[in-house]
Amino acid sequence: MVRKISIALMLLLVGINLGCSMGQKKAAPKVPEPEKRNLQQLVGDLSSNDGVARDAAFKGIREMGKDAVPALMKMLDDPVPATRRNAALGLGEIGPPNADAAVEKLREMAEKDPDEGVRKAAANAVKQIETRL
N or C end of the chain, less CB within 10 A? Predict the structure, then answer.
């Protein structure tokens, strides 16, 4: 009886090993493509030290176009200066006609935001939007 159980166990283990070696592998976790990342990830990547990541973020936001504008406009009121700066940069990248609604808010930020980096980003975004009108 013990011998039959041992043989059955060995066959089971061999079968499991054969299954693995016959190409039955676990699927690798899917890594989202840059275009599939959400807006928060893209906005975060705008301040990356990696130029490739930054360029990919700008491209992703541009491709989202008008779908990204409402969220970016909300981010203009964020208490964190880097978030406001990145939102302004994103709106500048999207440009007209989709980001036109943000021009007045960006002008106000360019003049009155307490953070110099935000003021510069907002001014740059206004320039980007207006030169493409």
Answer: N
What is the spatial distance between Cα 88 and Cα 47, in angstroms, rounded to a whole number?
12
Residue 31 three-state SS = coil
Domains in the chain: ranges and CATH: 31-131 (1.25.10.10)
The string of pLDDT tens digits covering residues 4-17 is 554 544 444 444 44
Asked if residue 61 lies in contact with residue 94, where contact means CB atoms within 8 angstroms, the answer is yes
Q: Give pTM, 2 decimals.
A: 0.64
| pLDDT tens for each residue of 66-80 | 888 988 998 899 898
Other CB atoms within a 10 A radius of the CB of residue 121 amount to 27
The dihedral built from the CA positions of residue 99, 105, 110 and 116, taken in this order, carries a sign that is negative
